Amino acid sequence: MTADKIFKNPKNLKRRKFVNSLMIFLCVVASVLTILPLLYIFIYTTQSGFSSLNIDFFTQLPKPVGEEGGGMANAIVGSGILLGIGGLIGIPIGILSGIYIAEYSKSFLASAVKFTTDVLSGVPSIVVGIFAYGVIVLTMQSFSAIAGGFALGILMIPTITKITEEMLKLVPQSLREASLALGVSRWKTTLKVVLKTASSGIVTGVLLAIARAAGETAPLLFTAFGNAFWQTNIDQPIAALPLQIFVYAISPYEDWHRQAWAGAFVLIFLVFIVNFLVRFVTREKYS
Amino acid sequence: MDIIPKKDEDFKEAEVLVSELEKEEDGDDGTGNIKTKSAVLTTDLSVYFNKRPAIENINIKIKKNSVTAIIGPSGCGKSTFLRSLNMMHDMTPKAQVFGEIYIHGENIVNFNTVELRKRVGMVFQKPNPFPTMTIYDNVAAGFKLNGIGKKSELDEIVEKNLVNAGLWEEVKDRLKSPALSLSGGQQQRLCIARTIAVNPEIILMDEPTSALDPVSSSKIEELIYNLKKEFTIVIVTHNMQQAARVSDQTAFFYLGRLVEISKTRKMFTNPKEKLTEEYVTGKFG
Fold this sequence. Notes:
heterodimer; A: mainly alpha; 13 helices; globular; B: alpha/beta; 6-stranded mixed sheet; 5-stranded mixed sheet; about 40% helix
């Protein structure tokens, strides 16, 4: 038989084994290359940032030029406020439109939304910043946390919509039918069965969007603007970690450089902590 | 889904046709109203997907507290027929349903789907318990998802229906475990418990044992036999022996048409149609 000839030929077998190990080797190399940059960034920021970190960093306001010390307390709180406003805008809109696309995908509006989110996810973040400037800052006649949060919220929408859609599509049709067949209405089925089954995936998507937004600098430059003082009024310019890092990093002062590193470290660490906490809270309880 | 009611005359014609059929089979004296006597009655039921017919002109009458098996080769419209009985087709875009379906004498166009599905429950081919819920919550799902029922009432309902589904002894100590920790056969019995918990009048079963091993299957068959006392059951099956074991009457579908419907014993020993005989003896299909 020809098949036997091919399969039992020792030369072929040797070649196939070689190709097999080669491909596995390439996969391992690629995997290592994926981890390396992240590991390098993490180690480098920890090394440079951790040493400049002290309690003052979390409790003090920035000191004027020339004075040693000071911290970024206002920027940390400011980032929190900005992300909060962004989340309030981006999370509901993202999740609801994701549900609409996934559950009612046959309508014209759904395909329009789908196309728009795809395009929106490719729009550079600075363009979103300019948009927020035009819509909010010019109308309010002032830089503000609202404008910054608005820009971050818009940046979160495409990520959250896309991941919600993908996660809902992974929920087997049979579960929807099981619920409907019990005499449960469509919206209760969507809310209590479909959304709940997909919840851990959606939470991951929301986290990803928040983490991305937390590090955004460009859209905040002419919306939140930054602030060297305490500010918790959301209609006033507000400080944010990435902005503060940006300002300090391009400054000529050695002390500010150290603080910028510390800020970068704190930013990465906070994102990491949020990720970890939410994952812990929403861990799979049922598998 | 569109249900397009037919004209009155059309319906009368069908009614005469079906009542003749009934007289012939049951020796009916012709006085009883056929619509109220049957648990399920369809007249000229046709379902189209994308303008293409999946089933055409199906006239079936199903008695209360009986088991009706629907057999036929793949793609003959068995599931389509079954799913039209609880309006599952309204989830499918481009599905059209023509003709009438009566549940205990009431035309289903008069129900909303939620109300209809409470009266016509369904068990699916693959066990599909809700993965995010416990065993307890799955049985109570019909109540919990609708946000009704007190804790003490639900406790009672869960126990009673798990007993009826023959699962109580196996799970009574772990009602709070996830439903997916059960075996496939147990999951399917859990799904049956979930379905009967909302106390429907009719239970539709779409090949409920095709994903199960023989032992689990025989447990389900036994269960079907017991459930007959309280419910009317319509079961689609690929397994001819199963149809012969569990059902009172059997309907044979072929290419979207109802070829023959008669008492199960007659169907398997002395069918009217040659096509039926060839199918049940395994000459094709």
